[in-house]
Amino acid sequence: MGLTIQQQRANFALECIQDLKDVLTTDKAQGEFISYASGLPAMIHMNGLGQAMAFCKLKSKERESYGQLYQLVSDWLCKEGQPYHQKKDVLEGITQCDMAHYQLAQAEALVLMSWVKKFAKAFLKEEE
Question: According to the 3-state scheme, what is the secondary structure of the chain?
């Protein structure tokens, strides 16, 4: 019996957060990721998925945590069975697919982020 989509999201988020413990090695970097992940859903609601992802991509030049967040969302939305399957990243999907795919991707990103936020707070360290 296969996993439900909710279990797949949770599993993906958990694996990504566990991998981030090895990539974001300082408490400061992990705390930044927790903060950015916590704020991303509000940013998506206010500005849309495209603007939020473009912002993360831009900020990734300054902060590795934004880059990791962008990559996490992009990897999920470009997986098989997701709205941007067969696209190289989320921004390519946003700019090349129709509105129906965009709306699905935005909803999917919001649901995924609920798991990412929970696991980030549970497994990553916040700055003292």
Answer: CCCCHHHHHHHHHHHHHHHHHHHCCCHHHHHHHHHHHHHHHHHHHHHCHHHHHHHHHHHCCCCHHHHHHHHHHHHHHCCCCCCCCCCCCHHHHHHHCCHHHHHHHHHHHHHHHHHHHHHHHHHCCCCC
> What's the number of CA atoms in the CB half-sphere (13 Å) around residue 11?
7
Q: How far apart are CA 5 and CA 29, in angstroms?
A: 30
Q: Tens of pLDDT along 21-68?
A: 999 989 999 999 999 999 999 999 999 999 999 999 999 999 999 999
> pTM, whole model, 2 decimals?
0.94
Domains belonging to the chain, first-starting first, are 27-122 (1.10.520.30)
| Alpha-carbon radius of gyration of the chain | 14
CA distance 30 to 33: 5
CA-CA-CA-CA torsion sign (95, 56, 12, 102): negative
| Spatial distance between the Cα atoms of 114 and 17, rounded to a whole number of angstroms | 13
